[in-house]
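Problem 3 from the worked examples.
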Amino acid sequence: MSQPSDFMQGAPSQAKSSPLQKWLLSSGNFFFRFRNFLFPTIYVLLPILTKPALFLGNPHLDRFVVALGIALVLLGQGFRLLVIGFAYIKRGGKDRRVYADDLVDQGLYAHTRNPMYVGNLLILAGIGIVYGSPWIYFFVIPFFVYIYLAITAAEENYLKNKFGVVYEDYMRRVNRFWPNLRGLTNSLQGYNYDWKKALRKEYGTVFVSLTGLVLVNIWKLYWVYGLSAKHDEIFAWSLLLIPLALFYVTTWYLKKAGKLG
């Protein structure tokens, strides 16, 4: 099997920064600072500016593609929950700027430097695939890949300046995105999965990603086929919003009550 590309590995380079690298760093700091505003804005504009479609106009092929998209969303969300339960890095920054107290290289971080971003990209790609618009495939998904690559470049620059050769050694050992699962069992020895922490920190993202997936499916069925043609299927998808809402409210209450640690 061939080795992942430098894009996925992110090995450090001693060469002087190129204009492209400087632009990536600058845009990464921008995206990091305004991502809490930028991401929701993009999500709201997408259904207004683009319309869902069947994959290659084929309803049978589209069902397979939708199943693939759903699997990617569940895989991405499950991966995030796995990461948080074993070892977790706070990615909120400080004063809307990249910041880190410690260098975490344990748990899943011993196999990919950005496991949470891997999960995010799987979720975004999955929902985009389900939506089916060519604009999503060729512009939106690549744009999100660029955003996360830029943010990662900004974070790496900060971490190299703060932790020096320790972080550069970590960069040489562990890929930027592509997970190398060799030795994963050994990496997780001594850890007890903290499901309460995972649930406490991730319930909002679980709710948003799965609710988004459901709403995208409902909107797609309505737009492509019409309410009368897919009434039963739309109704079935709509019912999923009830347990999702109950999950969010119940977990929120348990968190506020201190039941999740």
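Problem 4, a separate protein:
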Amino acid sequence: MRRLRCDEVLHEVWGFLDGEIEETRYVEIQAHVEECEGCGPRYEFQRRLMTLIQIRCKQPLPESVRQRLLRLLDE
């Protein structure tokens, strides 16, 4: 398994959380966020944010909103 860079992981975190990526990639990202002190907290924040949005909206997050959130989180 190749070592992922943090920017790769954070770029794919929404697909990871939605289960929209291949199983091999999922395992790589999961291993990274469990080990990485930088990505772990950011991943956890995004996971909680996504859960809250889904509970409140009761429907999948539109892609345009997801992209705006990603831009804001990157700042």
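Solution to problem 4. Residues 1 and 67 are 29 Å apart (CA to CA). Residues 39-57 form the longest helix (19 residues).
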